[in-house]
Amino acid sequence: MANSIIEIILYIVCFILSFYALSAVQFDRFCNVRKPSKVTLLMFLCALALAYLCTQGILQLTIYNGLGG
């Protein structure tokens, strides 16, 4: 139960940090679209994928190896 709560919190934190970091990239410069909502969706999906990868990496190094409790 505690591992699930830690995992969810870690997903949320990694997503927020990923979205913040990706906001520095100007996707509209290399994406030739007329609707900015498509660029926002691309940034959202990239942040989601990056958050998943970061969370899995952190969990693999800590909790899944028995280092977190």
* Largest sheet: number of strands, sense, barrel closure: none
Shape: elongated
Radius of gyration: 15 Å
How many extended strands?
0
Task: Indicate how many domains the architecture comprises.
Answer: 1
β-sheet strand percentage: under 5%
Element pattern in H and E: HHH
Average predicted confidence as pLDDT:
88
* Structure classification: mainly alpha
Catalogue the unreliable spans.
none
- Count of individual helical segments: 3
Name the helicity range: over 70%
First-to-last CA distance: 12 Å
Give a brief description.
The chain has 69 residues and is mainly α. The protein has helices spanning 2-22, 27-30, 36-61.
What does this structure look like?
This protein is mainly α and 69 residues long. Helices cover 74% and strands 0% of the residues. The protein contains three helices and no strands. α1 crosses α3 (36-61). It starts with a helix and ends in an 8-residue tail after the last helix. The model has no long low-confidence stretch (mean pLDDT 88).
